[in-house]
Each structure stands twice: as structure tokens, then as C-alpha cells.
Design goal:
Elements (H helix, E strand, L loop, with lengths): L2 H4 L10 E6 L3 E2 L12 H10 L6 E5 L5 E5 L1 H12 L7 E6 L3 H15 L4 H20 L7 H9 L3 H13 L2 H8 L5 H8 L3 H13 L7 H11 L51 H49 L5 H33 L6
Parallel strand pairs: 2-4, 3-5
Antiparallel strand pairs: 1-5, 3-4
């Protein structure tokens, strides 16, 4: 949809019935967790255009009222204008969506495609999508695989969706509040949520002690290095992985990685020895076991490298999307600069982390030793 269509200047094709409904009969969706934000610019635009030009999408409740699916900000803006005595039409153009299952998905799809979300909204959106699609697949409403349905609904890769869901399930409440306050980004939150809850609490206590408002990847790495902390082991029952949320076989989706990444490897068993073995034989087995451990560490580092590389790509895409929104007039200059600064700063931190992991991987694999 181009800018003219989104503003209502071009007739929009829709199979839904369209009617004018008074704002008093439009009820905010209880499942809507998206932030309304400032409405000043929207109200000014509605006054300038002579009313709301883009259809809202609503679901009938059966008692004469309608649940809003898409258009919460437009509805609220008109309510505030009417309360201020502005000369604006109280009846809004609404498309009627009678299919509840479709309405649930549409609430998420409309917001994921039409606005820039906060990190916490991204997390809640992924979690909500996971709940809806899981239930609707069980009910037979959705026939496609969960992986496909999640990607279609959220316009994100399965890896990104899994990270967002893992944050929701693994990040402690106090750090979730950091995300709600805009002090913790997605990539840093995912790095933290892989730690045990007690280690997450220790990190937060240290950050609070030194009055650090926004946690960076460098802060997390420093805390882990200083305290000798690693991520949760694979067999930790509290660990939630990406694949817990994508329950289809990986073969059903083309591989997203540009290079092969080792699966979670089991620690190789130490070679068993017998008393009759010679010192030389024991030394050979020790060397073989050491080599296995070095290979395992290289595989783990490679997985971490790919995770951060994926995050770098997502941040780069976000900058492109922000630029497109600015060029198309869908975001103010002030917001464009602020959002771009946030994404660019996080991108810089991710690239810094990527460099560290790259050097570590080179060391583990023996690259560059003679250079």
C-alpha cells in the first residue's frame, strides 16, 4: 500500500463490508498491547484532512458495539478531538471483519507491518503470535506449518521469532521492566536471557550499583568474564531454546544461515584408560581428548558468531526500513533521527561483539597463528 492509499485518498480494495460507526460504539481491543503514544501529529492530520480517511477494521461483538482490530490510534485521536470541541465527524469508516480467528491474526499483522515497534512490543507480539497460531493449528483453523505461519504473520525469520519468545519466557521480571522502559534492546536481552536467573539478577544488581541506565552487550560480556559465568547448559530444564517455539522439522524451511553451524554438541567422553596402558598411550589419548574439546569450543563460538551476525543483519534492515518510512512520509524527521541513532548505536555494539567473537574463533581454529 502506498502513502496515498494509506491516507485514504485512493479507494482501497476490500472484501469486507464498510459502514460508518460512531466512536462511542468502538471498543479498544483487550488483546492490544501496542503503545498508543503521542497523538498530536495524528490529530492535526485528521483536522487538516477533514476527518479520518483510512478505514478502521473492527469485529462485531453482537451487542451493537465493535472491537477495534486496526485503528486504535485513529479512534482515540477522534475521541480526544471531540472532547476538545473540535469540528470533526464522530462516525468513522470501518471495515467489518466477522471472522474472529482472522481478526486475532490481523491485529498483529496490521501493527507489525505499519509501525515501528519498541523492543518490548516485539517480544509481546511474538509471544502472542505463538499462542494464537498454536491454538488455531490445534483447532484446524490454520493448515500451514507453525514455522510458515509465524513467519508470514510477523514478517520475521524463525530465528528472530525464537529469540523474541525466548526473551519472554527466560528474562527475569526486573529486566523485562528494563525493556518496557526502553533501556534494554532485543539483542542484549537475548544474550542475558540465556543466563541462569540468579546470574541475570547478579548482572542487574551490578548495573544498578554503578547507575548504568542502558545495558550493552559489552556490559554483559564484562560481567560474564569477571564472574566466570557461561550460558545455561543445554540440559538445564530452565533453558528455553529457539526451537521450542518452532515445532516443525527444520527441513520444512530452507536454511537461513550462510554457513553451516554445528548443532548443540555433547561433550565428548574422556577416553577410558586401563592400568596396563603405557605413559605414551595415555598421553596420546589425552591429546586426542584435548583436540576434541578445542573443536567443540570452536563450534560453540561459531554458533555465537552466527547469532550475533543475524542480529547485525536485522539492525541493518531496520535502518533501511526507517529510511523508507522517512522517504514515504510515514515518520517525522525527529523520530527518524532518534530511531536511526538507536539502531545505529546498537548496530555498532553488535559489530564490536562480532569482532571479538571473530578473533576468538580464529584463535580456536588456529587461523592467523603464522601471520
Amino acid at each position: 500500500m502506498n502513502l496515498a492509499e494509506s491516507l485514504g485518498f485512493v479507494p482501497q480494495k476490500t472484501a469486507r463490508a464498510v459502514r460508518a460507526i460512531n466512536v462511542g460504539k468502538l471498543i479498544p481491543n483487550p488483546a492490544n498491547f501496542y503503545h498508543i503514544g503521542s497523538l498530536d501529529e495524528l490529530k492535526a492530520s485528521i483536522l487538516e484532512d477533514g476527518g479520518v480517511r483510512q478505514n478502521l477494521i473492527v469485529e462485531p461483538k453482537g451487542d451493537g458495539t465493535y472491537i477495534i482490530i486496526s485503528g486504535h490510534r485513529r479512534c482515540q485521536a477522534v475521541k480526544e478531538l471531540l472532547a476538545d470541541g473540535a469540528d470533526v465527524e464522530a462516525d468513522l469508516p470501518c471495515e467489518i471483519e466477522p471472522d474472529h480467528a482472522k481478526a486475532e491474526r490481523l491485529l498483529i499483522r496490521a501493527n507489525s507491518a505499519a509501525r515501528i515497534l519498541t523492543p518490548w512490543e516485539e517480544v509481546l507480539q511474538a509471544q502472542r503470535a505463538d499462542e494464537i497460531i498454536t491454538r488455531q493449528r490445534q483447532e484446524g483453523v490454520i493448515s500451514e506449518t507453525k514455522r510458515q505461519a509465524m513467519q508470514t504473520l510477523l514478517h520475521k525469520s524463525s530465528g528472530t521469532i525464537g529469540r523474541l519468545c525466548a526473551i519472554y519466557n527466560n528474562l527475569i521480571v526486573d529486566l523485562q521492566q528494563k525493556m518496557k522502559d526502553g533501556k534494554l534492546g532485543v539483542s542484549v536481552a537475548y544474550e542475558i536471557c540465556q543466563l541462569r536467573p540468579e546470574d541475570q539478577k547478579g548482572l542487574l544488581d551490578g548495573i544498578t550499583k554503578f547507575d548504568i541506565e542502558e545495558i550493552s552487550l559489552a556490559d554483559v560480556r564484562h560481567y560474564k568474564d569477571m564472574n566466570g559465568i557461561s550460558n545455561k547448559p543445554a540440559d538445564d530444564p530452565r533453558q528455553t531454546t529457539i526451537m521450542d517455539f518452532i515445532d516443525d522439522k527444520p527441513a520444512e524451511e530452507p536454511a537461513e544461515d550462510t554457513q553451516p553451524v554445528a548443532e548443540d554438541a555433547q561433550e565428548p567422553e574422556r577416553p577410558t584408560t586401563v592400568e596396563a596402558e603405557s605413559v605414551e598411550e595415555l598421553e596420546e589419548k589425552k591429546d586426542a581428548w584435548t583436540a576434541q574439546m578445542e573443536d567443540l569450543q570452536a563450534q560453540i563460538d561459531l554458533k555465537n558468531f552466527q547469532t550475533v551476525a543475524d542480529s547485525v543483519w536485522q539492525r541493518t534492515c531496520s535502518l533501511w526500513k526507517l529510511h523508507d518510512k522517512y522517504v514515504n512520509g510515514n515518520i517525522t524527521t525527529e523520530n527518524y533521527i532518534a530511531e536511526s541513532q538507536y539502531e545505529a548505536r546498537t548496530l555498532y555494539q553488535e559489530l564490536d561483539h562480532l569482532r571479538v567473537l571473530h578473533e576468538k574463533t580464529k584463535k580456536n581454529t588456529g587461523e592467523g597463528e603464522n601471520q
